[in-house]
Design a protein that fits this description.
mainly alpha, 6 helices, single chain, elongated
């Protein structure tokens, strides 16, 4: 027997799931950047923490990919910020969005 829709079935803490979505997005951007710059793969593999932060930060990857694609408005940053602000960090809008 089907039960009627009940809003409390949606109760839960979904923001933790969005942290994983953000990580997947960052990983996708990194892989896309390395695919476009195959010579950088060896550098990335051997880089220490400081070099990785300087040359392969999520922000730098997004900017380089946007340049490659001709996006001047920062489309990748906008997607990342949407997830960060509304789902990964504690904000009223984020709580409303994910509950």
């Amino acid at each position: 027997m089907l039960r009627p829709f009940r809003s409390n079935w949606l109760a839960g803490y979904y923001q933790k799931a969005f942290v994983h979505v953000r990580d997947i997005l960052e990983t996708y951007f990194l892989v896309d950047y390395l695919r476009s710059n195959p010579a950088k793969v060896a550098i990335w593999k051997k880089a220490d923490k400081r070099q990785r932060a300087r040359e392969f930060s999520p922000m730098r990857n997004r900017d380089e990919l946007d340049k490659r694609s001709g996006y001047i408005e920062g489309a990748r940053k906008a997607a990342y910020d949407l997830i960060s602000e509304n789902a990964s960090h504690a904000t009223y809008r984020g709580f409303h969005l994910t509950t």
